[in-house]
Design a protein that fits this description.
It is a single chain. This protein has 281 residues and is α/β, with parallel strands linked by helices. The protein has a single domain (3-278), classed as Beta Polymerase, domain 2 (2-Layer Sandwich), CATH 3.30.460.40. 48% of the residues lie in helices and 12% in strands. The protein has eleven helices and eleven strands. It has helices at residues 25-48, 57-64, 70-74, 91-100, 107-113, 157-165, 172-184, 199-208, 210-230, 233-252, 257-265; strands spanning 3-4, 53-56, 83-86, 104-105, 117-121, 128-133, 135-137, 141-143, 187-188, 197-198, 277-278. The strands form four sheets. Strands 2-3-6-5-4 form a five-stranded mixed beta sheet. Strands 1-11 form a two-stranded parallel ribbon. Strand 7 and strand 8 form a beta hairpin. The chain is globular and about 50 Å long. 40% of the residues are buried. The model is unreliable at 1-11 and 277-281 (pLDDT under 50).
Length: 281
């Protein structure tokens, strides 16, 4: 599926930030507060329509990492959208709740990708909402079927990590998100636990799929390398310790036959889906 460009306001600015404003902590906190108001409206409508919606993306990292989101402010990480995952069996309810709130829908995306993704636009602000249906389908797939009930507002912590680790050409803002998440939460080696990142889920995924293993371990290595550039001493070391715990779990996970066969080919054949950049239109 094509990846869309971040939407800005008509003047080319950032949603909910005054044109020309410096990206100070105060400005970014004010933007986040406005995004949270929009999110609360959507979630209230979702409850009314009995639709299961879970937040993904940078806003979800802010929600899950209150003690360390200052790293996002320090690195001028601003918000661009309010994105969700929903179940395909409930997509009509999702459509109804957005339309009831006065949002409009991107008809091109509906026509071309409506079974996988929907995009809605706020009626008065330059805020949009991507709603992914059952899966994220970018460089690698992330399957959310049966997983949206793990958390009440966002997708699970390990799914948030997967959202970033699947990006082959990972960039600065995504690395910051990974660092924030790893700073806030301990790693679980015993499955899903409250307040933890389920490292066993990542290890099992990497043990089944060589392509996922290659991209995830590559990005964990990049995160460890750049931690010292973006974070202070103890913060950087904390992140590296969490990465070591994850890579150790991945290394100890048994490999499937499919993994072993694909490993024989290695990087001679592309192991990920290329993500095309297109305008939202």
């Amino acid at each position: 599926m094509a990846k869309t460009q971040p939407q800005t306001d008509a003047a080319g600015g950032i949603p909910c930030i005054p044109p020309g404003a410096e990206l100070t902590r105060e400005v970014l906190e004010q933007q986040e507060a406005r995004f949270r108001e929009v999110l609360d409206q959507i979630l209230a409508a979702a409850r009314k329509h009995e639709a299961t919606l879970r937040v993904i993306g940078s806003l979800a990292f802010r929600i899950q990492c209150p003690d360390y989101k200052y790293m996002e402010y320090d690195n001028q990480r601003y918000l661009t959208d309010v994105d969700f995952v929903a179940y395909g069996k409930q997509i009509d309810r999702v459509q109804d709740l957005f339309l009831e709130l006065g949002w409009s829908e991107n008809q091109n995306v509906l026509r071309l990708f409506g079974h996988q993704r929907r995009i809605f636009y706020h009626p008065s602000e330059a805020i949009h909402s991507d709603v992914f249906i059952d899966k994220l389908r970018f460089c690698h797939d992330i399957d959310f079927r049966g997983r949206l009930e793990i958390e009440q507002v966002t997708i699970s912590r390990i799914d948030l990590l997967l959202e970033k680790l699947q990006i082959v050409e990972i960039n600065r803002k995504d690395l910051i998100d990974v660092m924030v998440l790893l700073s806030q939460h301990p790693i679980s080696a015993e499955g899903e636990q409250p307040g933890h990142i389920d490292g066993t889920y990542l290890a099992r995924l990497c043990g089944r799929d060589w392509g996922w293993w290659r991209t995830a371990t590559m990005n964990l290595e990049k995160t460890a390398h750049f931690a010292g550039e973006y974070l202070q001493g103890q913060d950087a070391e904390r992140v590296r310790e969490k990465i070591h715990a994850l890579t150790d779990l991945i290394a100890r996970q048994p490999r499937s036959l499919g993994w072993k066969l694909r490993a024989l080919i290695g990087e001679r054949v592309r192991w990920y889906r290329e993500v095309e950049e297109v305008d939202r239109g």
